[in-house]
Design brief:
The complex is a heterotetramer. By secondary structure, chain A is mainly alpha-helical. Chain A has 8 helices and no strands. Helices cover 74% and strands 0% of the residues of chain A. The longest helix of chain B is centred in the middle third of the chain and has 36 residues. The chains are: A mainly alpha, B mainly alpha, C mainly alpha, D mainly alpha.
Chain lengths: 227, 655, 308, 480
């Protein structure tokens, strides 16, 4: 019952994942992560079956339509525009090096991402799925994206890279949320977005501090607190 | 007020005795006040015991507990009373002694602290032996443990003292946790923390209970190889504290063992034999280590291990007797153990107080730097001699009586039991004989080197006798040693009651007066005193005491110097060598290279083998392993994130 | 006529008071015979003691009352021990359950004060002697007790009277090998406790190698007389123990029993003399090995008694 | 009414932002804390009708937690003005506001009766603690703040994914999907087991990160070590307790779904692993505050261990939340005083505390004995319930392992703290002029007195709360 457009989008998401894992260029990464977020934002109304039902239901659904539109705009706006912009500003102001580095290198990152995606598919195929969800890519794509985000978090040395990894991970979780839109009250959805916004915002503030305290903004420097 | 309420009050007064001094100005008078309150508390305790003795058993005093629907209680029974008597007596005497030994004006920094925690320690022990349930017991237990920690750490500006205090605390916490586990298991089995016997044995829980109790209380009591904390703590604590610790605190471990033994009435005989065996080993090794020491307080501390071993032997004997249903063995074992608890409390406190007097007078604990103190400190020397003879178990003093009970019990088992049971007892009795002979060697050494001969250092030559407040308690303890040794029948009734409490009235054993030659001991003591008097009279009549004085015969060498005297290390050398497989003596020899070497220096030490050769390496090994774990947390955020990922994947795949 | 307790006790006490100094004389006579000399009179020890009691004494400056207490304690404990060992047919004057332990511990008390007296002089030699005495006693004591356990197991008695009486005869009949081992072991204990060759040479002239003799170097006059008497008492006690162990037979005639025991002790003294004449003193370092050997013999004896 | 528990701190935060004086601003904290305590005293005993479509409520489970938050915050707020007076060189506007927001967030976690709202509150809790960790504005505190933020956010993301999984488990199980606790408790649900289990793992990992369970604990020593003692106290006493409440909620759901055994296994795993990790890293620990942080890891382990054991141990775990919070708060405040007095928190410099700071040092030792399970103190009571529960339910090995780990922890912690407390004072040049002063010792003393009092006697109302919470945890829809 998931609209047919969702699956191609998921393929796109997965492709973007690989790009995120493979690119060392910060600007390109910020852009792609923004794109990633925006894409999911657009999927939000598409996946909202309850809305479709209400929409066909009659004029009472107009309020719902407005709500949906605002929410979509908020998600797309925050994830696709605001966050990339803030990040670009941070890069510019804090004079952060424009390339990222990886603990294990970029090719192995992509390779691991591939393995992770395969594992996600395997895992998802073994989970009992609800009728209508079995043949869709939502579950595996969600898990694969979470894994990809985690991989970026674990392997990137720079603080900003980790922030981006975190966003990717959140996006993966959001993909899963698409399955549940009907069941989940709007407030929680808003919470997701707000938390993402606030969380990332605070992170960026800290990254600014970090880059002022330690040039290079690499977390390699953040290793004085240890056993 | 019932005797149960009175004994609790007594404990609380004792605990509170040091608190007024916290707010009052620091002076010797306030210190005396602290002692006085403690004495008042202990006197109340004595009245409580007397009241209990008169009125017989009454229902325990109960309070609501911090737990749901449970109550905790206080009561005196035979075993409690048997432990209460030494507690009340020795803490009082130690407190008085402290007024001279640890004067506030001489110890402005920690005088108040020592008074405070000594009171807490005394009261806590009263609570322990009267507690009727695990919670009350543990409350008293921990108060005691922590108070003793601060007492050991009284002189915490000395590094060794800090190490000793920490080692004590570590061992003490092991003991506390084991006791904790013991009573929790009791709770799990019985559904109550009250001391109610377990009816089903042989289950994993009851086995664990007994093992935990053995480790926990054994650690507190200082059974070899769990004794590691004991020598250094006793050596570093102020002497009157050492007296209380050695005389009483470690006995609380014994009390715990006795109490747990009462909770598990259906123990197999093998456990009793095991206890007997560890007691024997502990006694032999304890005294062997003692022989090698040249610090008088460490030496006395190792003798505590020995005597605890003897007490545990008695307990093991009682357990064997209980298992096979032989009331006489049980009676001899438990009353021997409890009487030895008393005796050890008396003579070991006496010896520690004597050692304190020596330290106070001559300023060192090193036996080899003393000598000839008998002339300058005659009272201390005589009291110490009485303690020394008593601790060796020699007639006609108290140590002999308790050891005799245990010996007779062992001989009875060896002659009366089947071959396998008898074999343990048949090895334990010669073991005890070996212990006795070693103790004689050790105490001849201590007394001889410290008090006899000529002073080895100028400090020893200038030693002064202690004041009356210090000598009085020692004299009192010495008198107790003599009285119990000469008239053991006087203490037989309370031992009978304690033994009856131990068996829980099941197959009530015969009275001690019938089972052991206590009356004969008195007769023999009288006869012996007659012999001694006759001999002394003879020498007196012959005027030997007024004989002319001359130099000691030294094979024609007429300029003997005090440093030529035999030292404690040389005295013990052969014995240390005989036991070197266990003692691992450490010698530092000079390397002689030239024909005419310069000043050379030779040292030998007997360190604690378990501590140095087992525990420290083990700790280092564990710490080394732990240090590897530190690489897992090298401040790397990526690594931390990976642990999260890893644990999620692991748990998702863990079926 | 021996049935009445006090009379037997009086005999016992008289024997104990009078007989002991004879034994060193016997030993010395045997040694003299082996050496082809005429030797001292048999009663030389009595003469020595009497002479010493009449002499003046000199004390060391360093000593205290403990020094004089040593000989007193040695004699007192020796007497006490001697009253515990059954000699004739009737029981010893002092006899109760567990008296065997009192015997061992009374002797230990005597040893304690002898050693303390030695240390009181502050002499390195006397300290050395005390140390050796203490050390060897540690090894001898278990051997003694292992033997006692074996005997107690075989006889079921816990007092020396019961253990060394007719019940022991039964013991010899059922477990002779066990008791034989104990007997050998106890004889070794006798030698070491009384400082005889091969453990100690009472006649040596070098203080460095002595044990008992060096401890009493500073005693003189009456006190030294007591030392000699105490030493002979101890020898007598151990001899009597060995005799009673080896020969628990009751002849039926009570005077004969007394004669048997006394003759036995003299026999033991002869044996000691023979050993002293034929064996050399051991090196000090190998003494522990021999004593341990004695202990092991006793242990075997005890094990045999247990499995029996 | 209960909404004031959230609104009052928010208002106070706004006021704090508005007050210009660095010196007077901190007094808003005790004021807000008093309001909090008054509200808690008013509301908690009775409970309150559900609010906002049953999204907020005081239920039996949240009662003890609201009380803890109130007490811990109150004690810290008593300490705060004097502390901030000493630290006059640092502006405290953001700190004060964030502490108040933190209070609001903790209250919201305790009140939230909707799993999604609870999650939002938990996330807020993480975010608003960051400025207090970064209070010192030096590279070390920045690092600590960064690590706390990233790990906390990842954890909270996992919790979100877990919540989604849980919702999906309901969908898949065929029942109407709801995250409202009341509905979950009242209506029978069939949940899809694989999804439920995956959800449970993610949720425990997620909220466990906030609690500081090993191996998600790595932020804890850093944050506690670098934050002011007061903030450390709030984190250790307040935040971790609230995170435990979140875990409790999911254990409740697992029980409703009849999958308690799986949950127990996961909880025991985390419990023992946390205790073991704490034991390992406490050995030879040279930093007092990090040592306390590991102690916190250990006690969080104890909580989930008790929960995993089940039976009487659950009540023990609930009680232990309170005992641990009170005692740990006092210890962190005392450690803060020591840090002030020595200008260091390393055992190399901190020696002879009992001589330099007799009150703080003595109270820290009291706290040490209390927290390591000495009888007479609160934690002993709860720990004995936990281990006693383990023994009573036949889990002998687990109980013994618990005791053994307690011993190792004692050894490690004691080695650090005892050696700081005893001995002569060092003659180091960097000694500050700070000494014990009543406003900064009194809160510590109150904590220790409370700990002691709770060890002697558990008050009737507390017993009722615990019983109520245990009953609530056992409640659920009738099995069809």
């Amino acid at each position: 019952m998931v609209p047919g457009i969702v699956d191609p989008c998921m393929v796109l998401v997965l492709t973007l994942n690989f790009h995120i894992l493979g690119t060392p260029r910060l600007r390109s990464l910020i852009f792609v992560v923004g794109l990633h977020g925006a894409l999911l934002g657009f999927l939000y109304p598409v996946a909202h079956q309850g809305f479709h039902a209400e929409f066909h239901g009659g004029p009472a659904a107009l309020g719902a339509l407005i709500r949906l539109g605002l929410l979509t705009a908020a998600i797309v706006g925050i994830k696709g525009l605001l966050i990339p912009n803030v990040m670009h500003r941070a890069v510019r102001l804090a004079d952060i090096r424009p390339t990222l580095s990886s603990v294990i290198g970029f090719t192995p990152s992509v390779l691991l991402g591939g393995i992770g995606t395969g594992a996600a598919f395997l895992f998802a195929s073994r989970l009992p799925l609800r009728e209508g969800h079995e043949h869709h890519l939502l579950v595996p794509a969600s898990l694969a994206t979470v894994l990809a985000g985690f991989l970026v978090l674990v392997t990137r040395r720079e603080a900003l890279g980790q922030v981006l990894g975190y966003i990717v991970m959140e996006n993966g979780i959001f993909v899963f949320g698409l399955l549940l839109i009907d069941a989940m009250p709007v407030l929680v959805e808003l919470g997701v977005v707000l938390d993402l916004f606030v969380g990332v915002f605070v992170m960026i503030i800290i990254v600014n501090h970090v880059s002022r305290a330690f040039p290079e903004a690499s977390t390699e420097h953040l290793r004085t607190l240890r056993e | 007020m019932t005797s149960h309420a009175l004994i609790l009050t007594s404990g609380l007064i004792a605990m509170a005795s040091g608190f007024p001094a916290l707010v009052l100005p620091r002076s010797n008078a306030v210190q005396a006040l602290t002692s006085l309150i403690l004495l008042a508390g202990n006197a109340a305790g004595a009245f409580a015991v007397r009241g209990w003795w008169m009125e017989g058993p009454t229902p325990p005093l109960a309070f609501p507990s911090p737990f749901d629907g449970l109550s905790v209680g206080i009561a005196i029974d035979g075993v409690s009373a048997a432990f209460l008597v030494p507690v009340l007596l020795v803490t009082s005497l130690a407190s008085i002694y402290g007024l001279g030994y640890w004067r506030q004006s001489e110890h402005p920094e920690n005088g108040v602290r020592v008074g405070l925690f000594l009171g807490l320690l005394s009261g806590a022990m009263t609570v322990i032996v009267t507690a009727r349930d695990g919670l009350m017991f543990l409350a008293g237990w921990e108060t005691m443990a922590v108070a003793a920690f601060f007492l050991v750490a009284a002189e915490d500006h000395i590094r060794e003292t800090r190490m000793a205090a920490w080692l004590y605390l570590a061992a003490s916490h092991l003991a506390t946790l084991c006791a904790f586990g013991t009573f929790l298991l009791l709770y799990a089995i019985n559904g109550t923390y009250e001391f109610v016997p377990i009816r089903e044995t042989g289950t994993a829980a009851s086995t664990a209970l007994v093992l935990l109790a053995l480790v926990g209380f054994g650690t507190k009591a200082g059974i070899m190889p769990l004794h590691v904390w004991l020598p250094s703590a006793h050596a570093q604590a102020p002497s009157h504290v050492s007296a209380v610790m050695s005389g009483l605190l470690i006995k609380m471990g014994i009390y715990g063992l006795v109490r747990v033994a009462m909770l598990v009435p259906d123990m197999p005989a093998e456990w009793g034999l095991f206890v007997l065996a560890i007691g024997t080993v502990s006694a032999i090794l304890g005294v062997a280590f003692a022989v090698g020491q040249h610090d008088i307080k460490r030496l006395l501390a190792y003798h505590s291990i020995e005597n605890i071993g003897i007490i545990v032997m008695g307990l093991g004997l009682a357990l064997v007797g209980r298992s096979v249903g032989n009331p006489v063995w049980t009676l001899l074992g438990i009353s021997g153990a409890i009487l030895h608890v008393w005796n050890h409390a008396l003579f070991k406190s006496l010896l520690f107080l004597g050692a304190g007097s020596v330290i106070h007078g001559a300023g060192t604990r090193e036996i080899d730097r003393l000598g000839g103190l008998g002339k300058r400190m005659p009272v201390t020397a005589t009291c110490f001699l009485i303690g020394a003879v008593a601790i060796c178990g020699l007639p006609p003093l108290n140590g002999f009586v308790s050891e005799l009970l245990i010996y007779i019990g062992l001989f009875r088992v060896a002659t009366g039991a089947d071959a396998s049971t008898a074999s343990v007892a048949a090895l334990a009795a010669p073991g005890l004989a070996l212990v006795g002979a070693l103790a004689v060697a050790c105490f001849v050494k201590v007394h001889g080197i410290v008090f006899l001969g000529a002073p080895r250092t100028p400090e020893a030559a200038k030693a002064h006798e202690s004041s009356f407040v210090m000598l009085g308690p020692m004299a009192a303890l010495a008198a107790c040693c003599v009285v119990i040794g000469v008239v053991p029948l006087a203490v037989a009734p309370i031992l009978d009651v304690a033994a009856a409490a131990f068996t829980g009235g099941v197959a009530g054993p015969a009275s001690l007066a019938e089972s052991a030659p206590l009356a004969a001991i008195s007769g023999v003591a009288g006869l012996f005193a007659g012999f001694l008097a006759a001999g002394a009279l003879f020498l007196g009549v012959r005027g030997v005491g007024r004989a002319p004085r001359s130099l000691t015969w030294d094979c024609g060498y007429a300029a003997p110097s005090a440093r030529m005297q035999y030292t404690s290390s040389s005295f013990a050398e052969t014995l240390v060598h005989l036991f070197s497989w266990a003692l691992r003596p450490e010698t530092h020899r000079p390397a002689i290279k030239a024909l005419f070497p310069d000043d050379a220096h030779f040292e030998s030490h007997v360190r604690d083998t378990v501590l140095e050769k087992a525990l420290f390496p083990l700790t280092r090994g564990v710490l080394w392993l732990f240090s590897w774990a530190r690489y897992l947390q090298a401040g790397n955020l990526q690594a931390s994130l990976m642990y999260i990922l890893a644990v999620i994947l692991f748990l998702l795949l863990w079926r | 006529m021996f049935e009445s307790f006090p009379f037997v006790s009086v005999v016992h006490i008289l024997v104990v008071l009078v007989a002991p100094p004879l034994l060193p004389g016997v030993i010395n006579r045997v040694k003299a015979i082996f050496a082809g000399r005429r030797g001292q009179p048999l009663l030389q020890t009595y003469y020595d003691i009497v002479k010493l009691i009449r002499k003046e004494s000199v004390l060391s400056e360093t000593t205290t009352w403990v020094f004089l207490f040593g000989p007193v304690a040695a004699v007192s404990t020796g007497l006490l021990a001697a009253l515990l060992v059954p000699l004739g047919n009737a029981s010893a004057p002092l006899s109760f359950e567990g008296d065997l332990i009192l015997l061992a511990y009374a002797l230990a008390l005597g040893r304690f004060f002898t050693m303390a007296a030695a240390l009181d002089t502050g002499s390195a030699f006397e300290g050395m002697g005390a140390a050796r005495e203490a050390t060897y006693a540690c090894l001898a004591e278990p051997a003694l007790f292992l033997g006692l356990i074996a005997i107690a197991r075989l006889t079921g008695g816990l007092s020396l009277d019961g253990m060394l009486g007719p019940a022991l005869l039964h013991g010899w009949s059922v477990a002779a090998e066990s008791l034989l081992l104990v007997l050998i072991s106890w004889f070794v204990v006798l030698l070491v406790e009384n400082c005889r060759i091969p453990f100690d040479d009472p006649n040596t002239h070098l203080e460095l190698t002595m044990i008992h003799e060096v401890m009493v170097l500073d005693h003189s006059g009456p006190a030294f007389g007591m030392v000699l008497y105490g030493a002979s008492l101890k020898l007598f006690v151990f001899s009597a123990l060995v005799v009673r162990l080896a020969f628990p037979v009751r002849t039926g005639s009570e005077p004969l029993d007394w004669i048997v025991v006394l003759a036995g002790t003299i026999g033991v003294a002869v044996g000691v003399g023979v050993i002293e004449s034929t064996l050399a003193r051991l090196r000090l370092t190998s003494i522990p090995a021999l004593l341990t050997g004695a202990g092991v013999l006793s242990l075997f004896g005890m094990i045999l008694a247990l499995v029996h | 009414m209960i909404v004031w528990l959230i609104l009052a701190p928010l208002a106070a935060a706004a006021i704090a932002m508005a007050i210009p004086s660095n010196r007077f601003r901190p007094w808003i904290l005790p004021a807000a804390a008093s309001v909090q305590l008054a509200l808690v005293a008013r509301l908690v005993p009775h409970g309150d009708p559900r609010l906002f479509n049953r999204w907020l409520a005081v239920d039996p489970l949240s009662r003890p937690f609201l009380a803890i938050v109130g007490v811990v915050f109150f004690l810290c707020s008593l300490y705060a003005p004097s502390y901030l007076r000493i630290r006059a060189e640092r502006p405290n506007r953001v700190l004060c506001a964030c502490l108040l927001l933190f209070l609001a967030a903790m209250n919201l976690v305790a009140l939230a009766h909707h799993l999604g709202l609870m999650w939002v509150a938990a996330e807020t809790m993480t975010l608003v603690t960051i400025p207090s960790i970064y209070f010192n504005h030096n590279p070390r505190s920045l690092e600590a703040a960064w690590k706390t933020l990233v790990l906390g956010s990842v954890g909270i993301a996992m919790a979100l994914l877990g919540s989604f999984f849980l919702a999906y488990a309901m969908l898949e199980g065929g029942s109407a999907s709801t995250l409202l606790i009341d509905e979950l408790v009242e209506r029978p649900h069939t949940l899809s087991l694989p999804w439920l289990r995956a959800a449970f793992v993610l949720l425990v990992v997620g909220y466990g990160t906030k609690m500081g369970l090993a191996p998600m604990h790595t932020w804890k020593p850093d944050a506690y070590g670098e934050a002011p003692g007061m903030a450390g106290a709030l984190l250790a006493g307040g935040m971790t307790s609230c995170a435990f409440l979140c875990v409790l909620r999911f254990v409740h759901i697992a029980r409703i779904a009849d999958d308690a055994d799986y949950a127990s296994r996961i909880l025991l795993f985390f419990g023992l692993l946390s205790m073991a990790t704490a034991a390992v890293y406490m050995a030879k620990q040279k930093d007092i505050k990090r040592c306390l942080a590991y102690s916190s890891v250990e006690h969080m382990g104890m909580l989930v261990f008790g929960l995993g054991i089940g039976g009487g141990a659950v009540a023990g775990a609930l009680l232990h939340v309170i005992h641990n919070a009170v005692c740990k708060t006092g210890m962190f405040l005392a450690a803060g005083n020591i840090h002030r007095a020595y200008g260091s928190k390393s055992t190399d410099a901190v020696r002879g505390v009992l001589r330099r700071l007799p009150a703080s040092g003595g109270l820290l030792l009291v706290g040490f004995f209390a927290i390591t399970g000495s009888p007479l103190f609160g934690p002993f009571v709860s720990e004995s319930m936990i281990v006693g529960g383990a023994f009573a339910s036949g889990q002998l090995a687990a109980g013994l392992a618990f005791l053994a780990l307690m011993l190792i922890v004692f050894l490690g912690m004691g080695n650090t703290l005892i050696h700081c407390a005893l001995g002569p004072e060092p003659e180091s040049a960097n000694a500050t002029r700070f000494r014990d002063r009543i406003p900064m010792v009194a809160p510590v003393a109150i904590c220790m007195l409370l700990t002691f009092a709770l060890g002697i006697h558990t008050p009737e109302f507390l017993r009722d709360w615990i019983d109520g919470a245990v009953a609530f945890l056992a409640s659920g829809p009738a099995v069809p």
